[in-house]
Prior knowledge:
single chain
Amino acid sequence: xxxxxxxxxxxxxxxxxxxxxxxxxxxxxxxxxxxxxxxxxxxxxxxxxxxxxxxxxxxxxxxxxxxxxx
Length: 70
């Protein structure tokens, strides 16, 4: 259950970080839900993207290992 939660949180962070950074770099402002609550700089969105990638990778890898054992 813990690994599934890590994967979900990672994917959400990855998407929000990607949308925020993409909107700032290629659009007129950040996209996604976080920009409605906080004014996060581009570096913050990129950090969120990297953290999301790491969490999603850990969660998905753990799920795959658990599935391989069964």
